[in-house]
C-alpha cells in the first residue's frame, strides 16, 4: 500500500511542478524587514510577514516595547479564551 501511495503522491507532485504551481521556499539571508535579501542576493519586498510596514526594527517602536516590558513584563501566561477574562 505504501508503494502505491508513494507513486500516487509522486505523480501528483510532478503534475503540480509541471504546471508551474510548485512552491519552493525562498531562503532569506537578511534580517526580517519590509525589504529582505534572498539567497540569490536579490532584494525583494517582504509581503509574507506581519512586518510589511517595517516597524519591527523601528527605533521608536523598539524603545516603546522596552519601556512596556519594564512596566508590564514580557509574554503571556495564557490566552484569555482558555482561562477566562
TrEMBL record:
<dbReference type="GO" id="GO:0008890">
    <property type="term" value="F:glycine C-acetyltransferase activity"/>
</dbReference>
<dbReference type="GO" id="GO:0005829">
    <property type="term" value="C:cytosol"/>
</dbReference>
<dbReference type="InterPro" id="IPR015422">
    <property type="entry name" value="PyrdxlP-dep_Trfase_small"/>
</dbReference>
<comment type="similarity">
    <text>Belongs to the class-II pyridoxal-phosphate-dependent aminotransferase family.</text>
</comment>
<dbReference type="InterPro" id="IPR050087">
    <property type="entry name" value="AON_synthase_class-II"/>
</dbReference>
<keyword id="KW-0012">Acyltransferase</keyword>
<dbReference type="InterPro" id="IPR015424">
    <property type="entry name" value="PyrdxlP-dep_Trfase"/>
</dbReference>
<protein>
    <recommendedName>
        <fullName>Aminotransferase class I/classII domain-containing protein</fullName>
    </recommendedName>
</protein>
<dbReference type="InterPro" id="IPR015421">
    <property type="entry name" value="PyrdxlP-dep_Trfase_major"/>
</dbReference>
<keyword id="KW-0808">Transferase</keyword>
Amino acid at each position: 500500500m505504501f508503494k502505491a501511495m508513494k507513486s500516487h503522491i509522486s505523480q501528483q507532485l510532478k503534475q503540480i511542478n509541471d504546471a508551474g504551481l510548485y512552491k519552493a521556499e525562498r531562503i532569506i539571508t537578511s534580517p526580517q524587514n519590509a525589504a529582505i535579501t534572498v539567497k540569490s542576493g536579490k532584494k525583494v519586498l517582504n509581503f509574507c510577514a506581519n512586518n510589511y510596514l517595517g516597524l519591527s526594527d523601528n527605533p521608536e517602536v523598539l524603545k516603546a516595547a522596552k519601556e512596556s516590558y519594564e512596566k508590564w513584563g514580557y509574554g503571556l501566561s495564557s490566552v484569555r479564551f482558555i482561562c477566562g477574562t
